[in-house]
Amino acid sequence: MRSIKLDDIRVDNNRVDFFFTPTKNLQKYFKDNNDLFIEYNHDITDIPKSILVIPFLANIIPLTWITDSTIKLKELDKSFYECLTGLKESYQDMFPNMDFKGDIEVEKLVENTYEPIHEVASLFSGGLDAITTFIRVKDKKPLLITEFGWHDSEIKNSEVWAADKENAVEFAKKYRLDNILVQSNYGNFVNSSKIDHDFAKRLGDSWWHGLHHGLAIISAAIPLAFKLKVGCIYIASSHSHGSEVPCASNPISDNRIKFASGRVFHDGFELTRQAKTKVVVDYFSSIKESVNIRVCFKNKENCCNCEKCLRTILGIVAEGKEPKTFGFDIPEDFSSHLQNFLLNNIKYFTKTNIMFWNIIKQRISENQDNISADFKLDWFLNYDFVKERKFSLINYRVTQFFPIIKRRIGNKLSRKLESHY
Ligand SMILES: [Zn+2]
Fold this sequence. Notes:
Strand order of the largest sheet: 5-4-1-2-3-8-7-6-9-11-10
Number of domains: 2
Radius of gyration: 24 Å
Structural class: alpha/beta
Distance between the termini: 48 Å
Bound molecules: zinc ion
Low-confidence stretches: none
Strand content: 15-25%
Number of strands: 11
Mean pLDDT: 93
Number of helices: 14
Largest sheet: 11 strands, mixed
């Protein structure tokens, strides 16, 4: 029998701690202190436990599905309880190689209702997807929810969070909106490498990407959405129609989430990343404002030297705009910078990467009249990603062949020598 029992929900002003006990056979999937915490920029002492418990349940439930375990709770919001069957089905459809089982034992279901005061609250990382969604819902004066889920058991200074927060607060101030700020250890309280060790192969995905992050991010926002009477939480899509990959954040499961009188909407799935780039650059050009698009994950600012930064920079260029006005401090000779990057990194490109880059190449080619010649991208229009990747891989293997063989022979020899002593 496998189960996880929620022992205590402890609330202290802005912070809630969930203390729980897994059975011995599940303990390996958690860090030793069995404590999930969330801290908000609002007092949460008046939020009912049946709502507060939602993030705890949502963070744990995918694990109980794949390990066929039971979660034991004292009370739970009725709307959230009722959406769980559909949620489980949507994950089961996404990962047919796994059996999604498990159970919930709740002593009391509570019907919570409210009349919405705010039509929309929108999750806001400051990235391209989130800014696109902001533009689409700005007339509804959304509350902006920004989260950091990577603390360990205690809140410690994080430069990344400080920069994310500053950016979100500045942004909200500029557009006269209010922030909801959330800090947690939801990304760290489970032992994800152990879960991946046991399940990633069958799942065909990692725990965080495939099962956890969507529910973690959305559910952390629910207690404040309840307190502030929000009608709908918007989460911006990272993927788009036609390039679906299994992912914990997707329109089918996200749109099934319900709590009290609130719901969730997965926004922008019909738009490709390039279409979103166009929405963003066109909007900010039309109001003559600059904006920081924050795309470099877990970095204080855009590095301009990783795949995602460079892809976004080129996407902006393809729309005929200047990346510097969108938060990318690109080097003077961008063309050589890009050439160098591809020379060293094309071998790591996946099929999906190549698909994204080809969409941008296509857009540059059709929009050439609007793109400044200073970017010197003629060579890029003839760049064959598949061919270059193949060439680079062969080259890499040839140059690495002798060092690898040498190392292997060396290891064998030293093992032989060791066995003599
Ligand atoms: Zn970067």
